Amino acid sequence: MRAVDIIQKKRDGHALSKEEIENFISSYTKGTIPDYQAAALLMAIYFQGMYESEVSELTKAMVHSGETVDLSMIQGVKVDKHSTGGVGDKLTLTVLPIVASLGIPVPKMSGRGLGHTGGTIDKLEAIPGYQTELATEQFIDLVNKNYMAVIGQSGNLTPADKKLYALRDVTATVHSIPLIASSVMSKKIAAGADRIVLDVKCGAGAFMENREEAMTLAKTMVNIGHALGRKTVALITNMDEPLGYYIGNGLEIKEAVDVLTGKGPEDLYELTKTLATYMVMLGKEMSQKEAETLVTDALLSGQARNKLKENVKSQGGDVRYIENTELFLQAKEQTTITAPTDGYIRHIDPKMIGQGAMMVGAGREKLGDTIDHEAGVQLHKKRGDWVEKGDKIATIYHQKQLKKDVLTLVSQAFHWSNHPVSKKPYIYQVITAPTE
Fold it and tell me: Which domains does the chain have, with CATH numbers?
């Protein structure tokens, strides 16, 4: 089976067989197919697309290109959550403790941040002492004991995806629904969960900026999940402005704890409840109404917050930071930005806010950059709010002297209107079953 024949077949718009996909992925992972031929296939897929059956086979081939995590020693139905990434997205930190507190195991493997979106592992490491590198046996033991543990991603999961992702980045083939969907789902399936809830971000701060593309991606991933024996639900959620009011690692932990004590912002609170509800529906196989009641009770009773404290303690973290979240507000300098005019906030550009936070140390421009867990941006107003000239609209937390371009970037992220501006929905659509 020659690589050139597989490339030509896809170039001409034909469906690849299971054997052709398996052969290509296996050979590329082993290094017997060179990058230039893999790049040619990626470009053919970019232009010709793939049928659902092809995407499922591609995902399966990437899953089996390396190790898979065996979670069979964890009792019960394991439920995982994945977000396609956004600014201020701290939903893993709010949702997992709720679900775990209801007796549903949530073994979570998360990544680090790169660019203007933060990683869950970086955020948790803002808690002094929190250990994200655990042996597999310890990870499984913690989930069996506490129903929750969070660790960094294993080095040899889906090596084919790692190679292809790096190649996509330098060949302008990143923005391809089949390639994005197979990349996300291969990692989720290799990580061993029985059920998967996907948070597909849509808007100016998301990878998918328009709803039509977000819908196509969500449907494709749900179809893959079901085809590979994983019941999957996808929520298409709004990322036209940062989620919540805090952007930055320690700052986002603070806001996550606020949500678990009933004090968090409306957008973050509502998304937390909804995502947790769908995870509970899958984990306990119950109706949405029943699941929502359990989730609400877990939040209002303090049960979810106690579960987070239990997790932090069990992974070596300083629980005092959960009991007193003001400990996260320790940056040496705080620079306030005020409104230049009266008016309604029409739009807050999430990418500009995320880039501003990254530039003061809350994110990485390249792999290997050091994270400042105390740095970031706090918003004081959101879309639709009325603001008078001179009102505080944002605070930048930083250690070193603030560069003028950071101040300009965050200031220019705010756009104004003389007329009232309506809020956008937090959730656009939920996809619960395979679609044609």
Answer: 3-63 (1.20.970.10), 79-323 (3.40.1030.10), 328-417 (3.90.1170.30)
